[in-house]
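Tokenised fold entry reproduced for everyone:
>
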Amino acid sequence: MKPLIVAHRGENVINPENTISAVRGALRYGVDIIEIDVQFSADGQVVVIHDTTVDRTTHHSGKVSSFTLDELKQMDVGEKKHTSFKGEQIPTLDEVLELMLDEEENKNKAKLLIELKFHWFSWSRLFTPIKDLEKEVVKVVQGRNAQRVIIIQSFVEEYLFNIRKLDPNIPVHLLVFPWRMLFASSLLQSPVDSFNLLHYTATQSFVDLAKSQNKTVYVWTVDSKEHMERCISFGVHGIITNRPKMLQKAIENFDSGSYHTAYHSSDLWFTYSLLAAAVAIICYLLFRLDLLALKSKQKQA
């Protein structure tokens, strides 16, 4: 089985990421799926941008959620990539869907993988969903009758469960925090269509188990030939990459008969890092419990 080629943030080697140019570039490459990131503007419009701020991709600074759509549209997200892209705008989800539904533009019937962003770290939890983001995304998708061309992914299961209720026809993929792979057997109980893993954490046994439960496995973000071949050998269903052309060649040239999966030192390093991350998360949670207990005692006093 050949894995699906997923263009991370569109074709972003030549084009500015998460833009109409990047989506159009990926469509011209003939990829199977195009991944984008969405969040809210200040006036509740679903916009396509990865970072929580506009600092990295524009000449402005500030949180995406602090600008209205009109204000975001005034910002140039192309010039930092190359002067030839000067004037490129931050697109809305609706604008990207319009492109995906254009049969002349999307001749290969590629799908759109929409990642729902979230807020990192609050006093009460490790991450917090952006209120009503999933509802508005589904509304935009249904407004275009675009369910057939989209998949939604997120690290936040709450989003995905809500989407299941809002529209069962939309496939939902769980992005898996690396430390959750330490509890892979319980992870597989999640009622989602696919588990999308950081590629270092993928194993043959997990892929096989997922398949036995009619689940798919995607991996992210794979940009070296060595790691592409490793993931192909596992039989993953999709590979998210910034290098779709390289991945296409790796798939075409892959020989399962002669390939030998080696456990590289980088993988060993990552295993130790994964354990360290798990310990850090446990310490954080214990710290939070201590703070909550202290606040409770202060209230009682």
Notes: The chain has ten helices and eleven strands. The mean pLDDT is 91. The two ends are 64 Å apart (CA to CA).
